[in-house]
Fold Cytochrome P450.
Amino acid sequence: RTLHQNIHSSTEQRQDKKSESMEFPSASSLLLILLPPVLYISYHIARSLAKKKPTTHGLRRHPLLGHLPAFLKNRDRFLEWSTELIVASPDLRMGFWIPGMTTGIVTGNPADVEHILRANYPKGERAISMLADFLGHGLFNSDGEQWLWQRKNVSLEFTTRSLRGFLVDSVQAEVGNRLLPLLRRAADGAGVVLDMQDVLERFAFDTICMVSFGHDPCCLADGGVLTEGKSDFMRAFGEAQDLIVSRFLDPVAASWKVKKWLNVGKERRLKKAIADVHGFAMEIVRSRRQSASGEESRDDVLSRFVASDEHGDEALRDIALSFLIAGRETTSSALTWFFWLVSSRPDVVARIADEVRSVRSMAGTRPGDPFTFDALRDMQYLHAALTESMRLYPPVLIDSQSSAADDTLPDGTHIGAGWNITYSAYAMGRLAAIWGKDCAEFKPERWLGDDGAFRPESPFRYTVFHAGPRTCFGKEMAYVQMKSIAASVLEEFAVDVVRKNAGSGVPEHVLSVTLRMKGGLPVQIRRRVEA
Ligand code: HEM
C-alpha cells in the first residue's frame, strides 16, 4: 500500500465512525432534544385555550373579512346596532375583529368600564397619528408623560375662580345680547322656523372660543340677526373635524396616508381646512403674546398659558385647539336632544319654569336678568333634567382607547395589546341593571333625593363625561352653559319641534364624534303664556 492509499483509507474509517454516531442518536438523547420545544408549544396552546376570549354574541364573522361586513351594513345605525348587541349579551359587551385593521371590544359592562378608565388605557399610536395633523399633541391628542404634564398645567389654570367668573360672564352676555334677541325675533315673526341645533352650535362655538382664545368669532350676532354664513374660522374648523373623523371610518385602514401623500380627494380638502385653522389660531397666539408683553391681563385659557411663558407657539396653539374640539359640539349636542325631549313633556318644562321663578325670587332678579353662578347652582331639578337627557343621548358618541399591553378584564376575559377598546355611554344609559326597569323613560326625578337635591351617580356608571384620571375638564363649565341657556329659554319661550311625530319618532343622528341630529332640529318659538 502506498502512503497515499493509507491516508485515504484512514480518512474513510474516521468518516464512517462519524456518520454512524450522527445517524443513530439514542432514544433518550432524542427525547432530551425534543422535550423543551414540545413543552413550550403545549404550554402556550393550553394558555391561549384557557384565556377567556371576548364573545361576539349574535354577530356573524366572515371567514376572511371578520366583522367588517356587519360593520359596513350597520355603519349608519352604529349606536343602535351596537347597543342592541350589548344589551342582549350576557356579559354586556361585543368583541370584533376586522382583518388588517383592528381587534377589539365595545363594552357597556360597568365592571369593564371601571377597569379600563381607572387604568387609563392610552388613546394609542393609531388614533393619535390620525389626529396629529389637526390637533398636534395637545391635551386631547396625547398619552403618557406628554399628556400628564399638560393635564397638570391645565388643572392649575382651570380651577381658578377668575376663569369661572369669566365663563359665567361670557355665557350670560351671549344669552342676553344674542340668543334671547334672536328667539324674540323668531317668536314675533309669522311662522319662522329656526334650526335649533345650528343656533346652539353657533352659541357653543362663540363661548368656547372666548374661553380658550379670548376671541369672539360672532357666530351669533348681537341683536339676534342670524347671518347666512358662519365665521370662516367655525366653517374651517367644522370641515377639518369632519374630514379627519372620516379617516377613522374608512374601511381601508391606511388609505388616508396614500391619499395624503398624493394630495387628492378628502385629504386635499383636509389639508386646506387645517391650514386655515392653524393660520387663524397662530395669529391669535401671536396677538396674545403681544398683549402679555404689554402687561394687559386677560382671563382666557390661552392668555394664562402665555403668561406662564413655558410653551412655544405651536404647543400653545395645540392646547387651545384641544379645548375647542372638546367644548365645541358637546354642549350643543346635549341641548339639542334636551330641547327635543322636553318638547313632548310639558310637565318637565313646567317644573323647570317653576324652579327658575323660585330661584329668581330668592335672588331678587327679574326674567331676562343674567343668572349668577350661585343661582344656576340652585337649579337642582334642571340639573337633573339635563343629566337625564344626556343619560339617554350622551353627546360623545365614540370614546375609544387602546390597550397598551395584554390585560384581563374583571371577569377574566383576555385583552390583547393594541386592541381597540370602546365604551358605549349610550348602551350604559340603557341598562336596566343600572337604571331599573324604566331605564328607557326620560325621568328627571330619578336623580333627586327626598329633599329635592340632585344625587350624582358614580362616574363609572354614568360615563357621559368619561371617568378616572382622564375625566372631562369642562364638566362644570358645560353645566353652567347648558343651565344658563335652558333656564333663560324655557323661562320666556315654548320651543315647538316642527316634525311629523315630533313626540314619538326618535330623530336620526349623524355618525361622528358627537351625537348630532341628522338634518338639525327645526323649531318654532312661541312666547310662554303663564297659566
Ligand atoms: C356636555 C358637555 C360635555 C361632555 C358630555 C363632555 C364629555 C367628555 C368626554 C367623554 C371626554 C373624554 C373623551 C376622550 O378622551 O376621547 C372629555 C374630555 C375632555 N373634555 Fe369634555 N365634555 C363636555 C364639555 C366640555 C367642555 C365645555 C370643555 C371645555 C371647556 C371640555 C373639555 C374637555 C377636555 C379638555 C377633555 C380632555 C381631557 C383629557 O384628555 O385629559 N369638555 N369630555
Remarks:
- The chain has 21 helices and eleven strands.
